C-alpha cells in the first residue's frame, strides 16, 4: 500500500515537495530573486524529467485516486508547460518582490490540476478543480500596483464562484438521481432522464467556463488582459489544458450513456465558440486580449475533435493541446518579454518589430502561423487531426463552418504578421536582449512547433495510450 | 528497375539553398547568393533530366505501360491497421514531366535574377525565398499521398506570399500578397474538406490505393461513396468538386482568379516562376493526378470543362483591353490554364479517349517554356524602360534584339503558329475537344484567335509602334546572365513541340500513336494568322486613336470619318465592341462583383464584430447573466425541444 502510494502518486508528491522546499526557502535568510529563480527552475526541470521516468497504473483510496500512463503523460505536458512559463517570466519576476509566493500559488494550482486529472470521483474532481482555481485568482492580482490586475482577480474569483456553485448543484443532482459519485459506477446508472440531462448541462457549463466556451467565456478577455502575462499564459495553456484532459475522459467514459445529448450540445457550442472567438479577435488591439479570443476560437476547434467521440477524437485533442502548449507559449513568451521590458502590449506597438528584433519577430510569426494552422508547422497537423476526428461522424456542416472560420482566423493572424514585417512605424519597440532562460524557453517552443508535427511518433504514442471507446 | 533514390535530392537541394541563404545569406553570401542558388538548381535540373531520361527511355515501362515508382516510401503515421499516411516520392509520367519543367524554369529564373535583382538590398533573402518556393513546388509534384500534397500545397502558398510581397515597402505589393494568400486559402478550405471526404470514404490517403479503390465499381468503398449523398449530389462528386475548388484557386480559374493580376506586384522573374510554370499549374496537376477518379464522375468533369473554358474566354477578352504588360501576360496565363483545364474536362479515360489529358499535359509543358520566356522578356523590357505600361514603350526592337526575337517566338508559340511549341499542344487540345464537345470547341477556337490578337497587340506595341526614345539606351539589354536564359528558353519554345508526348504521357500509361491531321489545323492556324494581321494593322504604326476611341464615345464618330473606313471597322470591332461591350463589363464584374463579394465578407464580419462588441461590457454581473442564459438555453433545447 505505502509502496503503491509513492509510486502512483509520484507526480503529485514531487510538486508537494517542491512547494515545501519553497516554503523553507522563504523561511531562511533573504535571497536574491535570481538565486530563487535558479533553484525553482532547476526543481521544475527535475519535475519534468522525473515525470517521464516510469509509467504506472493503479487505483488508490477507494477509487478516489486513479492513474494510468495517459494521465501521467497529461501531467507531464502540464509540468513542461509550467517550466516553460516559469523560464519565460524571468524578466518580469526578476524585479518582483514576491517571487516565492508567485511560485507557491502556481504550483498549488498545478497540484490541484493533477488531482483533478487523477480524480476517480466527482468529489475528488471538484476538490482538484477548486484547488486549481482559487490560487489562480490570487496570482492574477500579482501586478500589485496595477488596478487592472486586481480587477482581473476579482472578476476571476467572482465568476469562478458562480460557476462552481452551479457545478456543485449539478453534482448534487447527479448524486441524487444515481446515489453515487464514483466514475466507474456512474455509466451504468445514467439513464437519460431530464433531470440527469439538466445536471449534466450544469456540469458542462462548469467545464465550459474553465475552457472558455461561448457563452461561458466572457470572463476570459478581461482577466487575460488584466492579469500579468505569465498568469495569462498559464491560464490559457495549463489551466485550459488540464480541464480539457479531464473533459475528454469524463465525456468518453462517465457520460457515455448521454452521448447523443452531449454530441449535439458540443455541436452547437463549438460553432458558437469558434464564431464568437473569431469575430471578437478581429477587432482587438491589445495583444493579450487578442490571444484570449484566439484561444477561445482554438477551443472551439478542440470541441469539434471531441465530437468525433472515438480513440482518434481523444488522441487528437491531447495531441492538439500538446501542440497548443508550444505555439501559444511561443507567442506569449514574446509578448511577455516585450511587456516586461517595455510595458507595451498593443498590437499597433508591434509595427516594424522586425526592424529592431528579427529573432523575436520570427518566433512570433512561426507561433502565429502554427496557431493559424499553416503547414508545416505543428498547428496544422493538430487542426488536421481534429477535423479528421470530427469528420469521422460524417458531420460535414460542422467541418465546413469550421474550415471557413479557419480562413477568417488567417486574416487576423496574418494582420499581426503584416504589422510586424511591413507596417511602417516611427518608433518601433527598441531592441531587446533576450535573457538566457527566456531564450531557452522560446527556442524550445519553436523547435516544438516546427518538429512535433513532423515526428509521427508523438501522435502514435498518444494514440496507443488511448484505449478504444 | 534502377534505383531512383537520388530523386530525394531534387527537392532537397533548393531546400538546402533556402536554409543556407536564409540563415547566413545576409552575413556571408551577400553577393554570391545568386551563384549558390543557381548552382543548387542546376544540380536539381540535371538530376531531373537524368531521372526523366532513365524513366522514359530506359526502364520506366512495364509490360508496355509506364507505371508508378514509389521511392523512399515509409509509413509516417499508422492510424489503424488499414489507414496510414505514407510519405515518399512518387514517380510517374506526369510527376517526372513536372519536375523537369519546374526545376528547369526555376533554374532559368535563378539565372536571370542574378542580373535583374543585382544591387537589391535583400538579394540573399530573395534567393532564399526562391529556394523555398522551388522546394515546395517540387515536393508538391512528387507527393505520394493527398495529405502530403496538401502540406506542400500550403507551403507553396506561404512561399509565394513571401515572394509576391517581396517589395514589402510598397503597399500595393503587400496588399497583393495578402490577397493572393487569402483567396487561395479560401479555395484550400474546399480542398481540405475534399481530402477529408475522399480520405474518409476511400479509407486511405495514398494516391495509388485511393484511385485503385474508388475507380473499381465493385469495391465497397466505391459503392459507399456513390451511395452517400448530400443535397442530392453524391459524395464522390462533392469530394472531387471540393478538391477541384482548391485547384481552381491556385490555378486562378474564374471566379477565383482575382488574385492573379494583382500578384504581378512581385519582382518580374518571380512572376515568370510562379505565374507561368509552377504554382498556377498546380491546380491542373492536381486534377491530372486524380484524373482516373474524375473520369469516373461525369458531373465533376463537366464542371472542370466549363470552368476551364469560361476562364479561357473571359481572360482572353480582358487581356485585349489591358495596357500593363505584366497584366496582359497574367490574363493570358489565366486563359491558357483554362485551356489545360477544359482539355482535362473533355477527356475520358483510357486509350484514345484520353487524348484531352495528354494534350493538356502537353500544353502545360510547352506553355511553361514560352510563358516564362514572355515573362522574362517582360522583365528585361521593364528593366530597360522602368515602366510596366506599354504606352511608354515602342520601337524597342533595335535596342534589344535578343529580347525581341525571344518575345516574337514566344508570341508565335502561344498563338499556335506551326512549327513552334504551342502549335502542337494547342492542336491536341482543340482536336480532343472537337471530338467530345463541339460547343466548347467553337468557343476554344474563338479564344485561340483572341490569344493571337492580344499577344501580337502586345508585341507590336512594345517593339514597333513608335520610335524608341534614345535616352533609354544608357544601359543595354542587360547582362549576360539575363540574356542566356532568354536564348535557352527561345530554343525550347521552338523545339518543345517536337517531343512525342502521346508516347510518353497518357491516362493509362500505354503509349499512343500520334496522328496529326493537317486539314484540321487549317481553321485554328488560319484564324490565328488573321488575328495577327489585324493586330499588325492596328498597332504596328504609332496610332493614338485606339486609346482615344476607347476613352470617349463622342469623338469616335468624328475621328472615324477622317480615316480609312476599313481601319475604323477594325477599330470599332476590336476597341469599341470588344472593349466596351464585353471587356468593360467583364472587367467591371471582375472588379465589383467578384472582388466585391470577397470584400463584403470582410466588411460583414467586421461590422458584426463591431456590433456585438457591447456583449463584452466588462461588467461581471452581465457575464453571470450570459452564463446563466447559456445554461437555460441548453436546458430548454435539450430537455424540451430536442425530443
Explain how this protein is built.
The complex is a heterodimer of chains A (469) and B (643). With 469 residues, chain A is mainly α. In chain A, 76% of the residues lie in helices and 1% in strands. Chain A has 21 helices and 2 strands. In chain A, strands 1-2 form a two-stranded antiparallel sheet. In chain A, strand 1 (58-60) and strand 2 form a beta hairpin. Among the domains of chain B are: 316-543; 554-605, no CATH class. Chain B has a two-stranded antiparallel sheet with strand order 1-2. A two-stranded antiparallel ribbon of chain B has the order 3-4. In chain B, strand 5 (229-230) and strand 6 (233-234) form a beta hairpin. In chain B, helix 9 packs parallel to helix 14 and helix 15 (325-346) packs antiparallel against helix 16 (355-385). The longest helix of chain B is centred in the C-terminal third of the chain and has 47 residues, at 565-611. Mean pLDDT of chain B is 77; it is low at 552-571. Chains A and B meet through helix 8, helix 10, helix 11, helix 13 and helix 18 of A and strand 3, helix 5, helix 6, helix 25 and helix 26 of B.
Task: Please supply descriptive tags for the structure shown above.
heterodimer; A: 469 residues; mainly alpha; two-stranded antiparallel ribbon; 21 helices; 2 strands; globular; B: 643 residues; two-stranded antiparallel sheet
List strands and helices in order, with pairings.
The complex is a heterodimer of chains A (469) and B (643).
Chain A: H1 2-8, H2 10-27, H3 33-52, E1 58-60, E2 65-67, H4 69-88, H5 90-93, H6 99-118, H7 122-140, H8 147-178, H9 186-189, H10 194-210, H11 219-226, H12 229-254, H13 259-283, H14 287-307, H15 311-342, H16 353-356, H17 358-372, H18 378-391, H19 396-421, H20 436-451, H21 456-465
Antiparallel strand pairs in A: 1-2
Helix pairs in contact in A: 2-3, 2-6, 3-4, 4-6, 4-12, 4-15, 4-20, 6-7, 6-12, 7-8, 7-12, 8-10, 8-11, 11-14, 12-14, 12-15, 13-14, 13-19, 14-15, 14-18, 15-17, 15-18, 15-20, 15-21, 17-19, 17-20
Chain B: H1 9-28, H2 33-59, E1 61-62, E2 65-66, E3 69-78, E4 84-91, H3 93-116, H4 123-142, H5 146-164, H6 171-202, H7 207-215, H8 220-227, E5 229-230, E6 233-234, H9 235-250, H10 259-262, H11 268-277, H12 282-289, H13 291-294, H14 298-319, H15 325-346, H16 355-385, H17 401-415, H18 421-436, H19 438-463, H20 480-495, H21 501-504, H22 518-539, H23 545-551, H24 554-562, H25 565-611, H26 620-641
Antiparallel strand pairs in B: 1-2, 3-4, 5-6
Amino acid at each position: 500500500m505505502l509502496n503503491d502510494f509513492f509510486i502512483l502518486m509520484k507526480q503529485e508528491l514531487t510538486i508537494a515537495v517542491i512547494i515545501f522546499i519553497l516554503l523553507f526557502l522563504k523561511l531562511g535568510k533573504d535571497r536574491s530573486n535570481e538565486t530563487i529563480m535558479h533553484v525553482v527552475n532547476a526543481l521544475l526541470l527535475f519535475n519534468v524529467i522525473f515525470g517521464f521516468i516510469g509509467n504506472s497504473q493503479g487505483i488508490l483510496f477507494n477509487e478516489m485516486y486513479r492513474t494510468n500512463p495517459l494521465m501521467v503523460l497529461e501531467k507531464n505536458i502540464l509540468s513542461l508547460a509550467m517550466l516553460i512559463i516559469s523560464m519565460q517570466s524571468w524578466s518580469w519576476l526578476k524585479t518582483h518582490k514576491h517571487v516565492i509566493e508567485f511560485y507557491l500559488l502556481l504550483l498549488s494550482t498545478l497540484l490541484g490540476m493533477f488531482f483533478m486529472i487523477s480524480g476517480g470521483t466527482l468529489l475528488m474532481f471538484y476538490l482538484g478543480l477548486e484547488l486549481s482555481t482559487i490560487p489562480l485568482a490570487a496570482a492574477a492580482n500579482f501586478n500589485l500596483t496595477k488596478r487592472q490586475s486586481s480587477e482581473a482577480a476579482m472578476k476571476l474569483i467572482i465568476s469562478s464562484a458562480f460557476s462552481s456553485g452551479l457545478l456543485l448543484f449539478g453534482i448534487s443532482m447527479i448524486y441524487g438521481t444515481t446515489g453515487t459519485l464514483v466514475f466507474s459506477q456512474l455509466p451504468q446508472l445514467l439513464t437519460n432522464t431530464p433531470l440527469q440531462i439538466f445536471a449534466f448541462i450544469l456540469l458542462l457549463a462548469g467545464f465550459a467556463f474553465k475552457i472558455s466556451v461561448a457563452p461561458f467565456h466572457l470572463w476570459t478577455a478581461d482577466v487575460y488582459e488584466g492579469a500579468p502575462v505569465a498568469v495569462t499564459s498559464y491560464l490559457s495553456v495549463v489551466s485550459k489544458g488540464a480541464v480539457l484532459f479531464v473533459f475528454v475522459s469524463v465525456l468518453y467514459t462517465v457520460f457515455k450513456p448521454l452521448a447523443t445529448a452531449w454530441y449535439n450540445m458540443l455541436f452547437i457550442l463549438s460553432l458558437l465558440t469558434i464564431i464568437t472567438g473569431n469575430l471578437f479577435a478581429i477587432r482587438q488591439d491589445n495583444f493579450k486580449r487578442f490571444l484570449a479570443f484566439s484561444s477561445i476560437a482554438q477551443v472551439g476547434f478542440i470541441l469539434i475533435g471531441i465530437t468525433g467521440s472515438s480513440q482518434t477524437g481523444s488522441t487528437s485533442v491531447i495531441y492538439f493541446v500538446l501542440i497548443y502548449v508550444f505555439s501559444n507559449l511561443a507567442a506569449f513568451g514574446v509578448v511577455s518579454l516585450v511587456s516586461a521590458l517595455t510595458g507595451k502590449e498593443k498590437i499597433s506597438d508591434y509595427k516594424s518589430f522586425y526592424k529592431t528584433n528579427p529573432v523575436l519577430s520570427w518566433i512570433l510569426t512561426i507561433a502565429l502561423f502554427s496557431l493559424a494552422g499553416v503547414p508545416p508547422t505543428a498547428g496544422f497537423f493538430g487542426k488536421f487531426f481534429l477535423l479528421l476526428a470530427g469528420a469521422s461522424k460524417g458531420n460535414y456542416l460542422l467541418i465546413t463552418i469550421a474550415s471557413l472560420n479557419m480562413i477568417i482566423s488567417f486574416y487576423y493572424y496574418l494582420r499581426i504578421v503584416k504589422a510586424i514585417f511591413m507596417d511602417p512605424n516611427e518608433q518601433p519597440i527598441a531592441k531587446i536582449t533576450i535573457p538566457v532562460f527566456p531564450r531557452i524557453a522560446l527556442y524550445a517552443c519553436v523547435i516544438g512547433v516546427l518538429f512535433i508535427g513532423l515526428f509521427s511518433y508523438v501522435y502514435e504514442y498518444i494514440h496507443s495510450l488511448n484505449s478504444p471507446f | 528497375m534502377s534505383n531512383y533514390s537520388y530523386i530525394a535530392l531534387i527537392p532537397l537541394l533548393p531546400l538546402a539553398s533556402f536554409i543556407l541563404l536564409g540563415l547566413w545569406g545576409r552575413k556571408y553570401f551577400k553577393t554570391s547568393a545568386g551563384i549558390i542558388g543557381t548552382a543548387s538548381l542546376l544540380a536539381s535540373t540535371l538530376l531531373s533530366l537524368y531521372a526523366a531520361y532513365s524513366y522514359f527511355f530506359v526502364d520506366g515501362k512495364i509490360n508496355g505501360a509506364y507505371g508508378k515508382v514509389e521511392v523512399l516510401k515509409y509509413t509516417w503515421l499508422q492510424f489503424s491497421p488499414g489507414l496510414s499516411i505514407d510519405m515518399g516520392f512518387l514517380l510517374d509520367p506526369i510527376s517526372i514531366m513536372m519536375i523537369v519543367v519546374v526545376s528547369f524554369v526555376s533554374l532559368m529564373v535563378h539565372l536571370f535574377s542574378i542580373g535583374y535583382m543585382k544591387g537589391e538590398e535583400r538579394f540573399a533573402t530573395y534567393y532564399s525565398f526562391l529556394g523555398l518556393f522551388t522546394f515546395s513546388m517540387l515536393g508538391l509534384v512528387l507527393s505520394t499521398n493527398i495529405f502530403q500534397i496538401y502540406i506542400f500545397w500550403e507551403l507553396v502558398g506561404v512561399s509565394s506570399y513571401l515572394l509576391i510581397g517581396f517589395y514589402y515597402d510598397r503597399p500595393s505589393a503587400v496588399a497583393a500578397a495578402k490577397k493572393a494568400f487569402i483567396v487561395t486559402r479560401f479555395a484550400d478550405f474546399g480542398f481540405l474538406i475534399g481530402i477529408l471526404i475522399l480520405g474518409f470514404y476511400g479509407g486511405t490517403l495514398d494516391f495509388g490505393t485511393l484511385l485503385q479503390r474508388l475507380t473499381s465499381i465493385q469495391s465497397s468503398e466505391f459503392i459507399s461513396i456513390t451511395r452517400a449523398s448530400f443535397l442530392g449530389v453524391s459524395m464522390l462528386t462533392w469530394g472531387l468538386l471540393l478538391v477541384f475548388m482548391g485547384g481552381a484557386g491556385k490555378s486562378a480559374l474564374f471566379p477565383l482568379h482575382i488574385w492573379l493580376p494583382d500578384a504581378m506586384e512581385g519582382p518580374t522573374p518571380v512572376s515568370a516562376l510562379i505565374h507561368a510554370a509552377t504554382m498556377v499549374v498546380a491546380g491542373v496537376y492536381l486534377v491530372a493526378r486524380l484524373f482516373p477518379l474524375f473520369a469516373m464522375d461525369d458531373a465533376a468533369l463537366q464542371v472542370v470543362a466549363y470552368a476551364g473554358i469560361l476562364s479561357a474566354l473571359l481572360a482572353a477578352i480582358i487581356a485585349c483591353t489591358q495596357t500593363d504588360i505584366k497584366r496582359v501576360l497574367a490574363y493570358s496565363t489565366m486563359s491558357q490554364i483554362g485551356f489545360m483545364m477544359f482539355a482535362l474536362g473533355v477527356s475520358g479515360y483510357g486509350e484514345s479517349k484520353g487524348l484531352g489529358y495528354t494534350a493538356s499535359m502537353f500544353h502545360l509543358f510547352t506553355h511553361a517554356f514560352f510563358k516564362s520566356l514572355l515573362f522574362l522578356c517582360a522583365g528585361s523590357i521593364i528593366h530597360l524602360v522602368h515602366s510596366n505600361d506599354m504606352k511608354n514603350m515602342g520601337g524597342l526592337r533595335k535596342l534589344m534584339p535578343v529580347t525581341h526575337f525571344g518575345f516574337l517566338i514566344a508570341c508565335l508559340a502561344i498563338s499556335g503558329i506551326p512549327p513552334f511549341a504551342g502549335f502542337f499542344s494547342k492542336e491536341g487540345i482543340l482536336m480532343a475537344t472537337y471530338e467530345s464537345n463541339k460547343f466548347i470547341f467553337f468557343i476554344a477556337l474563338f479564344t485561340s484567335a483572341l490569344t493571337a490578337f492580344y499577344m501580337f497587340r502586345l508585341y507590336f506595341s512594345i517593339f514597333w509602334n513608335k520610335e524608341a526614345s534614345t535616352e533609354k539606351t544608357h544601359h543595354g539589354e542587360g547582362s549576360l546572365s539575363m540574356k542566356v536564359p532568354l536564348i535557352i528558353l527561345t530554343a525550347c519554345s521552338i523545339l518543345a513541340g517536337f517531343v512525342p508526348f502521346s508516347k510518353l504521357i497518357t491516362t493509362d500509361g500505354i503509349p499512343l500513336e500520334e496522328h496529326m491531321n493537317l486539314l484540321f489545323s487549317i481553321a485554328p492556324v488560319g484564324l490565328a494568322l488573321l488575328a495577327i494581321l489585324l493586330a499588325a494593322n492596328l498597332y504596328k504604326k504609332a496610332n493614338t486613336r485606339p486609346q482615344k476611341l476607347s476613352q470617349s464615345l463622342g469623338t469616335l464618330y468624328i475621328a472615324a470619318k477622317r480615316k480609312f473606313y476599313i481601319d475604323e471597322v477594325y477599330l470599332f470591332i476590336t476597341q469599341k465592341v470588344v472593349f466596351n461591350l464585353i471587356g468593360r463589363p467583364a472587367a467591371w464584374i471582375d472588379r465589383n462583383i467578384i472582388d466585391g463579394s470577397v470584400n463584403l465578407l470582410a466588411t460583414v464580419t467586421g461590422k458584426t464584430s463591431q456590433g456585438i462588441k457591447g456583449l463584452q461590457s466588462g461588467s461581471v454581473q452581465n457575464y453571470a447573466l450570459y452564463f446563466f442564459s447559456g445554461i437555460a438555453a441548453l436546458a430548454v433545447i435539450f430537455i424540451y425541444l430536442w425530443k
